[in-house]
Amino acid sequence: MIRRLFPHPALSALLVVVWMLLVNELTFGALFLALIFGVLVPLVTSRFWPDRPRIRFGPDLVGYAAIVLFDIVVANFEIAWIILTRRNRDLRSRWLVVPVELRSAEAITLLAGTISLTPGTVSSDVSADGRALLVHALDSGDPEADIARIKQRYEARLLKVFR
Asked: What b-and-e string marks burial along 32-53, b requiring 16 or more CB atoms within 10 Å of the CB?
């Protein structure tokens, strides 16, 4: 019964939290509406998720989120420094092809979103077979090192989160 009411409990919780953050006030009405959305949206969309991914909530996911937030802050300063101190012709923009070991579409989407959230890189495309991401880097002195960094910092952690 509970599983039918909450087919995606993590999505329900996320919707409630995001709704409350968007409303930006803690009132009974806002919380009630958030709970309604948290129940109804997963119920209506559950038939579109027949093979939902298995996500391991816990230290691995928290560690991943912490690394991503840290990298976003650091990358903002790095990109600001690059913009302020380098001329355009001195930038070493590159297209990187990052091979992906992740198999779930949700995990690959999270990896691509993480790359795009980190300033200086944009995830542009996924190969047709889902085995590689095309990433544009604003300044890449060593493309192989940048690919290894993406795989080690993000993909390795996502492999633990998505079992």
From this structure: eebeeebbeebeeeeeeeeeee
